[in-house]
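Weekly structure sync - notes
Attendees: PM, LS, DV (DV joined late)
Agenda: review two folding runs queued last week.

Item 1: First target. Sequence and structure tokens pasted below for the record.
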Amino acid sequence: MPANVSSPIPSATSPRAGRARFTTHWLSPTIITIKVEGELDAATAPELVEHATRHTDRVQSVVLDLSHLAFFGTAGLTALTQLDEAYRDAGVHWGATSCKPVERVLQICKADLPIHDSLLSALAATRKSAPLHLVSQSAS
């Protein structure tokens, strides 16, 4: 399994002519973080959803690191809402970090999503909510 998977997504149709970059880090076989950099707008938000749901059949926990975003539009909020539903349906526990652009949109829209102050707190929250997998041992 690759340690890092990087996916630069140009947003040529974005009025800001920005770009988003999604980098997946495998912390374990069932826990990933996805670092999101640049701008999350109408052009790049669908790409985030596609990238962030790529491994739902193999992971138990996902943390989106949004702390490096320069712009977060309402399409970003739509993407997070879609991810919340997709992860819930797949039984994947998730959380995200925040930054000023994300906080502004979430506050205005009064969104109730698992947003945390830091990557460590988001990881801790997803680990607490992840189920334990018990391994049975046969008697010798």
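Item 2: Second target, run right after the first with the same settings.
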Amino acid sequence: MTLQARKPGSSAAVARTTRVRHKVVQRNGCGTVNIINFYAYDYGKVYRSCGNCNNQCQRTVYIEGTTAYGGGEVVGINEAYGDVATLVNVCTDADDPWVLYDGCAGDCKPEEVAYC
């Protein structure tokens, strides 16, 4: 699922997913995404701010009551654009549930810069 609207405030209303090889939710627009009471199994990333969109902006994600097993990071955000992530009552077996990227605009590849 890709959220592209540039309007602030978007919610992902999917309750469960399995076998999503890449990103479950990718936010390309600005504003906030709320992911609440969600279950993911065998996934790549639960949430990722766009790392190389042409028009970058600050994004916020709020994840609550989420269980994520058998996958990668729960959240990936861009440090360079001031992205903010809040995780509340999240259960996961991910080695690095929270990954910070440098973010870039256009034809580039964002690099991982920190882990939480």
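Discussion on item 2: The chain has one domain: 2-115.
Action: LS to circulate a short write-up before next sync.
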